[in-house]
Amino acid sequence: MDRQRKKELLQQYKEMKPEMGVYMFKSKKTNIVYLGCDKNIKATINGDRFKLNFNNHKCKKLQKDWNENKEENFEIRTVEVLPYDKDESKVDYSEDLRILREMCKDKFTEENVEEI
Questions:
Q1: Which phi and psi (to 5°) does residue 4 adopt?
Q2: With a cut of 50, which residues of the chain have pLDDT below it?
Q3: Is 40 helix (H, G, I), strand (E, B) or coil?
């Protein structure tokens, strides 16, 4: 691959915007929903799975539930996506993500909801 092509690919990578928003781990056995939010949902879910499988997750309730019920008894998915601002002037979405997570709690009226 020539230098110019590498440079173009690197620039494309830098301009990529990962999906951000609210995600969940829901125990099918206990019906507890664990909600998290992040600027890169896919990477965070992968990281959480890795930590859970190595018994090293910061959310002790989720870790206990995971250890007792195993991964196949969890539904893991994106709950809500937060769109990027059109003018691209905003760089910190942390507060928006926390607010969105709070709003998403209302979607789970039947379940017990915990924050990751």
A1: -65, -45
A2: none
A3: coil
Question: Which positions ≥6 away from 75 have C-beta within 8 Å?
Answer: 24, 25, 26, 28
Buried b or exposed e, range 18-32, using 16+ CB within 10 angstroms: ebbbbbbbbbeebeb
Q: What is the pLDDT of residue 78?
A: 97
Contacts of 96 (CB under 8 A, 6+ apart): 82
- Among 76, 63, 77, 75, which Cα is nearest to 29's? 75
Quote the pTM value: 0.82
Distances (CA, A) of 95 to 45, 50, 73, 99: 20, 26, 31, 6
